[in-house]
Amino acid sequence: MSDDLSGMPTSLSPDCIGDWNRVIRGILSHAASTGPDLNRVLAAHPDFALGQAIRGISCLLLGRAEMVEIARQAYAAALTGAPATMREIAFVHALGDWLAGRPSRAAARMEVILRMNPRDALAMKMVQAIHFVMGRPEAMRASVEAILPAWNDHPARGFILGCHAFTLEETGEFAQAERIGREGVALAPDDAWGLHAVAHVYESTARARDGLDWLSGREAAWAHCNNFRFHVWWHRALMHLDLGEYETALAHYDADIRAEKTDDYRDISNAASLLARLELEGVEVGDRWEELAELAEIRATDGCLAFADLHYMLALCGGERDQAAARLIARMQATRPAAHEAQRVIAHPGLHIAQGLQAFSGGEYASAWMHLRAGRADLQQIGGSHAQRDVFDRITIEAALRSGYADAAEALLRDRMLRRAGTIDGYTAARLSLIEAVRVKAV
Fold this sequence. Notes:
Layout: E1 2-3, E2 9-10, H1 17-29, H2 34-44, H3 49-61, H4 65-79, H5 86-99, H6 103-116, H7 121-133, H8 137-147, H9 157-170, H10 174-187, H11 192-204, H12 208-215, H13 220-223, H14 228-242, H15 246-257, H16 265-280, H17 288-299, H18 306-318, H19 322-333, H20 341-361, H21 365-376, H22 386-402, H23 406-418, H24 426-442
Antiparallel strand pairs: 1-2
Helix pairs in contact: 1-2, 3-4, 3-5, 4-5, 5-6, 6-7, 7-8, 8-9, 9-10, 9-11, 10-11, 11-12, 11-14, 12-14, 14-15, 14-16, 16-17, 16-18, 16-22, 17-18, 18-19, 18-20, 19-20, 20-21, 20-22, 21-22, 22-23, 23-24
């Protein structure tokens, strides 16, 4: 038995605890080395139940159909592993909950772990990850704030501050989020999540130039990351977009956001949502949709997460793959939610949003407005952040404008402003000016 970096007892032998601590810190920092480190631990101790559980949960977070079977294999290995601590057993059961289609129960089980062991960094980060993909920022914030007092002298304190900052931003406490996020990055300079939490504040409060100043010179904070580094570059591109610096945004797309042409849904979402935003501003994006559409057509059969499906739809529409888009809609229509939480979200609001995107792409703006409006109230359920979901808000507003519902479009813009500290970004300013011009012309 050996204690990990949080002081939690594990069933590992002392000679392997260093590798396991690197796994934990890698999970906290989104390090590219985490997978190889975990593989090394499991190669030496294949019966390490907690390691197998983390392997399985990590596979499910990828939102890929083929990863579900690997997660099941990890679950089976964990169940037949060596005698483990009660904490480790709880992680294994959490994996089983998610495999049964109940990620909320998995998160609740880990909350029990945190109540018993509030300094457990691994449980803390896993709870954040599960609630994030389920679109539950209030639950993310409550979880962190319940255990913060126990982290005053924790060796990974900077990372929990980064998590806290993100939850504060997502729940509208922007000033506090910026302050705590900066404090966390000072303690953990390699915490790309905390760094990007502060970037979220600047995006949400229409302070793009401040955001660029914050990110500039801190590239080392995300250079060590797995594909999360592409997402931080995406934030930087969004700031240039808001400032009207479209060529710079496209340069980041080519050099950084799609530096690797992966088919990870998170990478496709970064790319597709940026291209969609650019096109809404009238920017020609060339043939960039084509490689995204090709990958999206293959991945669109996964059916794991509504968030992924909707970004695949963006890519398919952008690449004018009408038949593939129709097949994706049909697959979503055939979803049987039952007790499976992710499938329920695909059925609603996912299907309405997908139908709206398809109609918008085809120039059927009234139909797009009808579908997008029907899904908008529950959009947060698809998961991700406000910044990530904003592309669907923008397209909904555009559908209202293009189908002649100027008053409805203005109401949506005002609502968007309220959720963004009352600030007016470049997108909102341009649309409000457009609406005013239309009204003046109509007089």
